[in-house]
Amino acid sequence: MKTVLTNKNISIRTRRRALECYLEPILMYGCEAWTISKQTQKKLEATEMWFLRRMLRISWTAKKTNDTVLEEAHTTRLLISKIRKRQATFFGHVMRREKLENLVTTGMLEGKRSRGKQREKLIEGLTDWLKAGKSLEAIEATKDRKKWRTMIANAVKQGT
């Protein structure tokens, strides 16, 4: 793929589409179940920028900001919003089923809490991204598909 993605005879738009078709699915495999911390988000954004810099043949030692690289590629940062959208659609699907996956995803299992700082749950990251307020509001919104889809669409429009 390196020869295709770095070929200057192919338009940037075509190379970007090839990147989205071949590399992003590999990168985002299983992202529906990820909990994205700030550190993970920075790494994913850095990976996205690394792909674009390689595609445009911009050295990492070149003093070009990420904004100028994005302008040259005629794109914006899309990876995190794509991941969040996938997570939200998967979460809605799981919550409507009301099976064991529902309990695991919400983290409402019986038993004692573990010691130390509690792990971030998928629902917490999604409610922050959707700006839904409390996690219970997001869970209730999943019951109505139209409402859930509009919440996702609004969050995608606003970005991350």
UniProtKB/TrEMBL annotation:
One of the entry's Gene Ontology molecular-function terms is: endonuclease activity
Task: Enumerate the UniProt keywords alphabetically.
Answer: Endonuclease, Hydrolase, Nuclease
Is the keyword Nuclease assigned to this protein? yes
Q: Which domain of life is it from?
A: Eukaryota
Report what the protein is called.
Answer: Endonuclease-reverse transcriptase
Look up and give the organism this protein is from: Plakobranchus ocellatus
Q: What is the lineage of its organism?
A: Eukaryota, Metazoa, Spiralia, Lophotrochozoa, Mollusca
